Here is the input.
Amino acid sequence: MHAGVAGMRAAFAPGDLCREDSVRTCLALLATAWLTASTHSVGAAGGPPGGGSQPQGSAACEAARCAAQAAIDTTCPCDPATSHGAYVRCVAHALKRAGGGKLVPARCKGSVVRCAARSTCGRPDTVACSVPVSGCNATSGTCANDATAACADDGDCGVRCRIAPSAARCQAADGAVRASGTCCAGCGSPSGAFVGEMG
Here is the structure.
């Protein structure tokens, strides 16, 4: 396992962020994650090698999310969110209203809520943290996990993103703090709905 991934798992204790919200909120987020995983498992064939972060149909869902993002941001602004759980619930409710509901197909709503869950909204001091999944061999110029993949640095071998408790914890895991407060790709990005995720 690459040192960055191992370091991230060691640096981010599972309960770090859950302790910020009530038990009820944590359970709600876990239920959302389970529902999303169930939704993504349908038609998973055709996803990226190794069960990556872009399930079949993710491009269409990403386009729908971007189309609804302005309405979501207006209804559920990130900065004033009082807690992460409240923010995620706001997004889920916004999708039931006319704007989001019409723009986002039912099969995509889980991924939109998941995107909200993969953000720093309502989590003071947290950051979106990208950590290389493998190392770049400077001698061969290829990735340690794929000798056919050319690279100039570790980032060329792929990254995984997770919300870190702080910039210091991200950097301690050999990670880089993302400019945005989310692990979702920016609208218009060709890279898909999510930056790679920790399993």
User: Anything to note?
Assistant: The CA atoms of residues 132 and 159 lie 4 Å apart.
